[in-house]
Each structure stands twice: as structure tokens, then as C-alpha cells.
Amino acid sequence: MAASITSRLLTELLPPDLAASVRQHLLDPRAPFQIYTQALASQLQGLLSSLSPYVQPMVDRALAAMVDNQGATGLVVLLVLMTAVVVVMNWIRRLVMWWTRLVMQGVFWAGVVLALAWVWNRGVLESVRDAVVLASKVLGYLAVLKDFWMEEYERYEANGSGSGSGSGSGFGAARGRSSGR
Question: Cβ distance 160 to 170 under 8 Å?
Fold first, then answer.
């Protein structure tokens, strides 16, 4: 039954020539892959059977100790579980950081290529003139934005110091005295 499911999946997911190649070189019992897999499985089974007399007493003692000390066992299991969670979360963090770094490098190099294409198409002088115009518009917008935020900050400071606690020992009063203006 497993062979028929594998055969069906191969024919549905892969092109016919690739499916035939996989059947011939990987799934055929006379294929080198199957021969090496069976040899490795028999080697591992022999290794496990030869180690069993040495490992079995240690496993029995560990199981007996866990049954006798259930509180300590629960604590050990909790610590192992927490360690596993931290390790997996660290892997996830590293994977996210890798992808983020990759995307940011791609965006940076795309910007460099875009700037070079812009200079190539427009010419050096036209590109510099366009860059100066763009920079002046951005700086003008930032100046208006700064003025707006400063007005809002001054209005907030005026409202914050006017509605203090009355005793002058509150957070607002201390902030008003240390504004540095």
C-alpha cells in the first residue's frame, strides 16, 4: 500500500521522466540507494543489539529514580522543556534576523542599481540637479514637520506644567523645572 501511495504521489507531483528516474534509481530494490540503506539499517541494528546489555541497566535505574522522586522529575522535565523552548526561540530569532538582513541587503543593492541606472539615463548633471531639487523638497518638508512637532511639544509643556498637582512636588513640576530652556 505504501508503494502505491509513493508511486501515485510521484506520478502526480513530478514530470513523467523524472518520476520514472526516481523509481529506477531510488525506489527499485536493486538500486544502490536501497542496497546501501538496507546495509546501514542492518549495521545500526547490530550496533544497538550489542550496546543493549550495557545501556539497559542505566535506563532501568534512571526510570526507577524518576518514579521514586516525582517532584524532582517534574522539575527536571520543566527545566528541559524550558531549555528546549529557549533554544527553538533562538533559532527562530536567528532565522528572522538572517532573512531581514538578506532583504535589507537586497533593497540596498537595488537602490544602488536604481541610482546608477538613473544617472546613466539622465546624465550626471541632470541627475545632480534632480537630486538637489529632491533634497530641497525633503528638507523643506522636514522643516515644516519640525515646526509642527515643536509647536505641539510647547503646547503640551504649557498644559502639563499648568495642570500640576498644586503642591509643586509632582512629576509635572519636576519636569517643568528641568526643561533646560
Answer: no
